[in-house]
Amino acid sequence: MLKKEQNDLVTQTGPGTPMGDLFRAYWLPILLSEELPENDCPPVRVKVLSERMIAFRDSEGKLGLIDEFCAHRGVSLWFGRNEECGLRCPYHGWKFDTTGQCVDVPSEPEESGYAKKVKLKSYPLIEKGGVLWTYMGPAETTPPEPEWEFATVPLNQSFTSKRLQDNNWLQAMEGGIDSSHVSFLHRGDLNNDPLFKGAAGNKYNLADSKPVFEVVEAPGGLYIGARRNAEEGKFYWRITPWVMPCFTMVPPRGDHPIHGHFWVPIDDETCTAWSFDYHPTRPLTDTERQAMKDGKGIHVRYVPGTYRPLANKDNDYLIDREAQKAGRTYSGVEGIGMQDASLQESMGPICDRTKENLVGTDNGIIMARHRLMRAAKALHEKGVLPPGRTVEDMKVRSAAVILPPDQPYKDAAKEALIAKVGVKQTSV
Amino acid sequence: MLLSESARVTTAQEARFRIQSPNSKPRAVKVIALDSEAARLVDDISKQPWNGAAFFKSLSFEQSGGDNVKAWLNDLAGHTSDLVGEVANADCVVVIAGAGEDAASVSVIAELCNHYHKTLIALVVPQGSFEQDTVDRSLKALRPHAKMLVIAHERDYIEAMLTALRA
Question: Which residues sit opposite B119 in a β-bridge?
């Protein structure tokens, strides 16, 4: 459990909050490239870390992420005209470039120079791996650009999706760290989902619902190793990396693409669940890519024209109680992504952790919270930059291995946990 | 449009109506230092207010014929108690070992935890400058016995974990 003040510390990410400052120390995924598909396309509203902004791609392809509201009288620039290297407010014609600099105030003489005195807050917006990333911290401490493997392999080797989730970021992210729930919540999918089934390791998940955990600190966050019994006294390890503040990877199964998540706060009660799938050494097959588009694996199907899941709280997640009773799904909700999201949303917009009763197997979550709080306080109070910002921290992979009983996984799987170009994932 | 039940009950307003009564009884957590390094940490941590967690700084045991082992725990006030009774009455047992220290005594505790079906959590707490080999030795000794094994580089993690477990 956490005390109320601790829960507030880890869940509040708006401007000026300690955890908000922590998130602002990293590049964060905020849009898919497809949302700004071409030069001078319509602008898009973005809310991240409780800040409302507008994103656009100008006439020369430059990306802009600026305050949503016109400096004149507060009209939303979502209505803006994206033309001639800027976004022009349709109310009185004030125009802003991709840095937020006002470049035209039609009602004032150009010679007056008034426009130069007006500048909207803006953040850098870059494109990598089919995703648009922003950094909202001080310019002088800008970290290296994203080097996550999924964002650096050729685009035909990856698939990235996002979905809206109606709860605080942390209770969503904790689901990515806690692998003990897989043997319950997702058990119906291990042998049925086309992006999971057929892996030799699945049988260990299904045969052993009481994994034993080892949690070790990593330079960028944590490794959480879950071991289950394998043959001949050996252990089947599934190793999950967590890199601060909100990146996790699911250990691989067979030769299926490997996947993972970011959970990026929109505000304190909603977040964007980013899901990526990629194969380090080959293109995704048409079948794999179509399955991902169809909402298999960690992806979901959408309400058309939105990034809102089709199964959502407004339709009770399309729950099927017969499927639950028949054992086809454990919770009655279909699909791994929504199985997680439905339960996490049910905790309430911000989970009240003062009521928790944690057990030993929750140590991954306990340590993640501890590291987050420690890093947020150190940054807020002393300006100490948090872990997880270096290129080495980002070049991480998950792994699944079978080891003899006396081998520490962190040593035996050390190379497997590093992303290397042209090297396959380590999997069972 | 009528909201579905899921939509209505997951609002912040509805969160106000959660039952406020306690949803669990106090948990009996026994924290046992396996070596002198760990005993120093346990001594410090025990000084804070806890919800009934019991702290023990050492374990002694002797064979008493055949496979029988008699074991005693010494608490920080110097009182001795029977390990069997402490484990039998525990909800959870936490052992703490300094890196590289002798963790052989954990097998005695683990056997009792298995017998009484209690979860054993083991923390290895490297202190100061340490060799990775020493951490690995401790892990090797503890791994066969613990349901959850944690390397905690900062001692304040022990307090954070015990607080999280409502100890």
Answer: B92
- Give the minimum alpha-carbon distance from A405 to chain B in angstroms, rounded to a whole number: 8
Do B57 and B47 meet the contact criterion of CB atoms below 8 Å apart?
no
Give A181's contacts (C-beta < 8 A, 6+ positions apart): A175
- CA atoms of A275 and A164, how far apart (whole Å): 11
With beta carbons under 8 A apart, name residues in chain A contacting B11.
349
- Regions of chain A with pLDDT less than 50: none
Instruction: Fill in the amino acid letter for A384.
Output: V
Nearest CB partner across the interface for A315, out of B4, B147, B151: B4
Q: What is the DSSP string of A193-240?
A: STTTTT-TTHHHHHH-SS-EEEEEEETTEEEEEEEEE-GGG-EEEEEE
A350 lies within 8 A of chain B by CB: yes
What's the CA gap between A392 and A220, in Å, rounded? 9
Comparing C-alpha atoms, which of A70, A77, A30 is closest to residue A49? A30
Q: Tell me: the pLDDT tens digits for B75-127?
A: 877 788 888 889 999 999 999 998 777 777 888 899 899 999 999 999 998 87
Number of C-beta neighbours around residue A56 at 10 A: 25
Per-residue pLDDT band for B66 (boundaries 50, 70, 90) equals: low
Q: Which helix (H) or strand (E) is A266 found in, with range?
A: strand A258-267
Kindly state the helix (H) or strand (E) to which residue A120 belongs, with its residue range.
Answer: none
How many CB atoms neighbour CB A61 within 10 A? 12
* Residue of chain A whose alpha carbon sits nearest to that of B139: A408
* Residue corresponding to tokens 């608490």: B75
Residues on chain B bordering chain A, Cβ-to-Cβ distance under 8 angstroms:
3-7, 9-12, 14-15, 18, 23-24, 27, 92, 119-121, 136, 139-140, 143-144, 146-154, 156-157, 160-161, 163-166
- pLDDT tens column, A124-167: 999 999 999 999 999 999 999 999 999 999 999 999 999 999 99
Q: How confident is the model at residue B13 (pLDDT cuts 50, 70, 90)?
A: confident
Nearest CB to A366; choose among B144, B149, B160: B160
Residue A189 token pair: 């999918």
Among B150, B158, B159, B162, the residue to mutate for chain A (most A Cβ within 10 A) = B150
Average pLDDT, chain A: 95
Q: pTM (2 decimals)?
A: 0.92
How would residue B1 be classed by pLDDT, with cut points 50, 70 and 90? low
Q: Return d(Cα A7, Cα A353) in angstroms, integer.
A: 7
